[in-house]
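Summary of Year 1 activities. Much of the first year was spent building the evaluation harness for sequence design. The harness presents a backbone, in tokenized form, and records the residue chosen at every position. We chose the following record to illustrate the format because it has been used consistently in internal testing since the harness was completed.
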């Protein structure tokens, strides 16, 4: 009762079946969901983090880091797929935690998901602004620096230092434009996302295909650079550290599950969307890393635009591709922001329907059938963060929050197989209990590789969330008094 009360499966299944003025519109197909996942995954990972992780941690063995991180996501993805098909409700890991582990842990994971979606949307919007400014500079157009940079940077022990800039206006405008699009409708948003995903997939495939002929195998030697004596700087510990850093690149496949109540056939399509997008992106990441570290020495990739550097290293023969890479990066990062801003309101929507958030977050637009209030609030907050702060300091915090969510989902599969083994499951996680256990262990391993400062920030964030729960959520919960 109370803190540990669970939301009954029957209540969840009733919500999934309802169709009325407060329900979301079911308009997404399996292909929409796969592209939604790809849209969220392919972005900062390929266009930014690959070079950074290779130069600072793993060298050419960044390929192994992607494989390691991919396996962690595979274990979690299989567990997500079982839950998404079984409980096709907006809310993702929050909803799954409420059904299996109780209200308190559900609140913790729902609050934790804000880090994954809202904060990462802001961070990627800042990256998008940087690529846009560089692209316009290539065309001879220079935007005022006072309107393209954050007015504050974080230095030292977390202190804010003024930069003299006013606001990162491109990042703000991107968040607001995508917010309007998401309010208008999920179908329209999915159509825009589909176009962007096709565009950046073409760019990635072009780089892989044309860049492969310029690979110099000497750049792959040594494949695993010798450790410098510092843990995480090359060697096998560098591969692990690299996996923790580029894990941010995989964030997004779970966003597919937040669209559960807008899928036409969620029992069939959600597992396809989750596992399909994860498989496609893992293969592309590995091939892209091979080509990038094969064209350019890994030591030269520690830049904000490593793909552009690698392509330029091939010489004039691929100069035409550099412009296309910039366009692909701009489009790719925009689609990541789109999916992140889409996912967060659906977490708020689910929490508000359970009474843990104010009812306004559960309002659905009578015409567009979207959670418009939650979407507007999410978009405005994301725009403010993107415009005022360089959110890169929260990159590790986003990763640790996501890993925590994955652990909850894997544990939830184990619990529900024991407490409700006969519940209908259109998709079953294979090799239970081994897959969930491996998911918990591997994600926990990557969490501990992220350092004490990241853990401290997570603890502070969680303390704030718990204060809100005990001051508001617990007393307004619809299920806290259920036996």
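For this record, the design step produced the sequence shown next.
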């Amino acid at each position: 009762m109370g803190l540990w009360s669970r939301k009954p499966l029957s209540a969840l299944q009733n919500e999934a079946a309802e169709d009325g003025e407060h329900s979301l519109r079911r308009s997404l197909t399996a292909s929409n969901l796969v592209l939604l996942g790809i849209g969220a995954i392919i972005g900062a990972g390929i266009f930014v983090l690959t070079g950074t992780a290779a130069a600072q941690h793993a060298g050419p063995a960044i390929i192994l880091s992607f494989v390691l991180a991919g396996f962690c996501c595979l274990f979690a993805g299989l567990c997500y797929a079982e839950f998404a098909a079984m409980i096709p409700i907006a809310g993702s890991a929050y909803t799954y935690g409420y059904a299996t582990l109780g209200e308190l842990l559900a609140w913790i994971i729902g609050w934790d998901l804000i880090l994954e979606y809202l904060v990462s949307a802001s961070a990627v919007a800042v990256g998008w602004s940087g690529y846009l400014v560089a692209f316009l500079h290539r065309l001879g157009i220079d935007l005022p620096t006072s309107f393209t940079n954050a007015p504050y940077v974080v230095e030292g022990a977390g202190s804010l230092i003024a930069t003299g800039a006013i606001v990162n206006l491109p990042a703000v405008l991107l968040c607001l434009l995508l917010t309007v699009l998401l309010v208008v409708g999920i179908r329209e948003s999915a159509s825009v996302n589909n176009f962007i995903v096709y565009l950046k997939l073409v760019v990635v495939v072009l780089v892989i295909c044309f860049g492969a002929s310029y690979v110099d195998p000497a750049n792959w030697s040594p494949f695993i650079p010798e450790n410098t004596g510092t843990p995480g700087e090359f060697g096998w510990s560098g591969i692990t550290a690299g996996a923790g850093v580029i894990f941010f690149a995989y964030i997004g496949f779970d966003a597919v599950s937040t669209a559960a109540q807008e899928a036409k056939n969620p029992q069939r399509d959600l597992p396809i969307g989750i596992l399909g997008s994860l498989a496609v992106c893992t293969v592309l990441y590995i091939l892209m890393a091979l080509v990038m570290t094969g064209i350019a020495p890994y030591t030269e990739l520690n830049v904000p635009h490593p793909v552009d550097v690698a392509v330029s290293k091939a010489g004039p023969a691929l100069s035409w591709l550099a412009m296309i890479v910039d366009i692909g990066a701009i489009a790719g990062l925009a689609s990541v922001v789109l999916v992140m801003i889409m996912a967060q309101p659906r977490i708020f929507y689910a929490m508000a329907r359970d009474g843990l958030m104010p009812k306004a977050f559960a309002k659905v637009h009578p015409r567009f059938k979207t959670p418009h209030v939650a979407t507007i609030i999410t978009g405005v907050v994301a725009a403010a963060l993107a415009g005022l702060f360089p959110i890169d300091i929260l990159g590790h915090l986003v990763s640790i929050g996501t890993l925590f969510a994955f652990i909850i989902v894997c544990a939830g599969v184990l619990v529900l197989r024991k407490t409700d083994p006969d519940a209908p499951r259109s998709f079953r996680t294979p090799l239970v209990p081994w897959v969930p256990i491996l998911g918990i262990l591997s994600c926990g391993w990557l969490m501990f590789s992220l350092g004490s400062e990241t853990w401290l920030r997570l603890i502070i964030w969680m303390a704030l969330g718990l204060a809100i729960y005990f001051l508001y959520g617990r007393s307004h919960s619809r299920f806290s008094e259920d036996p």
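The longest helix spans residues 103-138. Quantitative recovery figures across the full test set are reported in Table 2.
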